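tool_call: predict_structure(chain=1)
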Amino acid sequence: MDSAELWRQAAKDIYWYQSPATLLDSSSPPFYRWFPDGVTNACYNALDIHVAQGSGEQVALIYDSPVTNTKKQYTYTQLLSEVAQFAGVLKAQGVSKGDRVLIYMPMVPEAVIAMLASARLGAIHSVVFGGFASNELATRIDDATPRVIVAASCGVEPLRVVPYKPLLDQAIELATYKPERCIVLQRSMQLGDMTSGRDLDWADAMAASESANCVPVNANDPLYILYTSGTTGQPKGVVRDTGGSIVALKWSMKAIYNVSPGDVYWAASDVGWVVGHSYIVYGPLFAGCTTVLYEGKPVGTPDPGAYWRVIADYQVNVMFTAPTAFRAIKKEDPQGTLLAQYDRSSLRALFLAGERCDPHTLAWAQMKLQVPVIDHWWQTETGWPICSNCLGIEQLPIVPGSPARAVPGYDVQVLDAKGGSVESGDIGALVIKNPLPPGTFTTLWNAPERFVSAYFKKFPGYYETGDAGYINEDGYVFVMARTDDVINVAGHRLSTGAMEEVLSDNEDVAECAVIGVSDSMKGQVPLGLLVLNSGVTQDPQAIVARVIEQMRDRIGPVAAFRQCAVVPRLPKTRSGKILRGTMRSIADGEHWNMPATVDDPEIFDEIAVTLKALGYPA
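tool_result:
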């Protein structure tokens, strides 16, 4: 089936108030528009349709919060009632089609309810990761200009309560644009001070609300704005349209993840990230599944068996998380001893994404879980997988280090710096031929010129992913690093991802990172940082010596890999991405800004001390 026919058929599987007669408007590339004359509503496709078809008593949403010791379940009928009621709250505050609603909340059911309620009215939601710093939140307020902000009084971490309301108040003070209304969910762990005339209590507003119906919207009307993680200065707001998102996400649930209505699907992520949008909220609900909302961590809530407990408690069929979560579990429980305490017989597959999955972590997960472990690749901009082993179409052989082949609808290619094709197996820039499929981003909010210049200008006719890699003779794609992380050692282009594979193969290494640092002779040389498994008693310097020798054996002297150190932890964003670029700037003595989404700012002091001991900056 060709791509056009694929999406023509997939579009028939969703609810339209007015079915599209036109499949694709390609009159203004790269601003392609799928189903341009269709009329639909995302909330109707997520909730109302399932109730209308008789599935109202099926569980739609499971909330599990080990940090607050709370568990709650909503049927489709119950979730629809809550969403319609909160849509009424927003409507009473003047929110209508096209208005923006900014959501600043932790992993609580009310965050999902607020997202769906916005979509119900045809409003555009923008979820900002809970606990984001005030200045970063302020830039998003100024960019999105929301009519209403929906927030919680606090978030809860394993060892602390994070007060959100003071951060929100400071952000509004910093912002040039002032929202008309804030609706605040007061959590008992820490109440927020309310600003008279501006702030409404969630519970009070819900008690006085009347339910609101779905508002039909054009397929190309925005569903949401999501600001990419780690941005500083002017934020980059990815815009997702409504019709394409419904079609692509619903299709992906069966084609890629092989789940059906009634199955339990758990994406262990956060609603503040794209995974949370696509595969905690919209995808599973479009598909009539039960979705799990987990307010906890892979370790520490209370131990490395937390994920196995959730799988057992709710009979999870398919799980999706980041490789970094499994590396954390493996570090704390290398032998997987806690697995034996839980029944995981319901689990059919594990999907990993968010950062490149090293073969060692993949093998550990396969061995311990005894189910297919699928590494798949996608981005905030694409909204759903670019490459995957599509279990609902045909399960391919798993090749460690590869997210398999391009998903139907994506034409992935590798180009050199001048835009020419490269030979099979040669590393280059990973690009996707236009048009991108439905469900991918359609523009950047208030920045159409930046949309073109950042993603489509360098390689005309293609979307530049920013990732580097290669495609082998079997069509398997290997995503080796961000383009910036391909280092040039004395004229040889080398992948830091390939080097990290060597390091992670060591049984004592829990996770690692390789960065390219400046060198007066070779231009750049690689530097490795290792985090060791818990319980390792061997001398760290002996481990370092061994991995340096392994690098020489497997990659060769050309890698010039001579510098390596053991560190207690690596700096990451809250979504689990290792901040290699920031570490490289520190090593090179360059100016750097504290990343907006860093998990633990103090870690950079530790990294700077380690780098200084190694002689960096020179």
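agent: DSSP finds 17 helices and 30 strands in the chain. Proceeding to next step.
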